[in-house]
Design the sequence.
């Protein structure tokens, strides 16, 4: 399996994490653009999803979402509860309390 740095530029990841290092500043749409995710193909976005799906369940659950920035870099901070809920609500279109691979890809490419 590819590593995050094989899919995204380390410099872009570092800049994006730096931009959102303050608690409650995380904006998933801006983050996706800054790390280069929004410009990627659906297939590559799904590879990123698989790296973020730590327990390989096919979903990013709320607990995994809290640590999503660490999936991009060990330097990433934990999301606050407010940020985690906001991210989950934006992506979880079927209301099952977790983000599936297609929901993640749709969220990355929306707007």
Sequence:
């Amino acid at each position: 399996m590819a590593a995050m740095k094989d899919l995204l530029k380390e410099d872009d990841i570092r800049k994006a994490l730096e931009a959102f290092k303050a608690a409650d500043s995380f904006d998933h749409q801006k983050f996706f653009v800054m790390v280069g995710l929004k410009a990627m193909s659906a297939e590559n976005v799904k590879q990123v999803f698989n790296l973020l799906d730590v327990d390989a369940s096919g979903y990013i659950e709320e607990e995994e979402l809290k640590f999503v920035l660490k999936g991009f870099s060990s330097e990433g901070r934990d999301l606050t509860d407010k940020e985690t809920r906001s991210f989950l609500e934006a992506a979880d279109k079927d209301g099952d309390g977790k983000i599936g691979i297609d929901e993640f890809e749709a969220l990355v490419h929306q707007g």
Remarks:
- The longest helix spans residues 42-52.
- Helices lie at 4-7, 10-19, 28-35, 42-52, 62-66, 68-72, 81-91, 101-109.
- The CA atoms of residues 18 and 101 lie 26 Å apart.
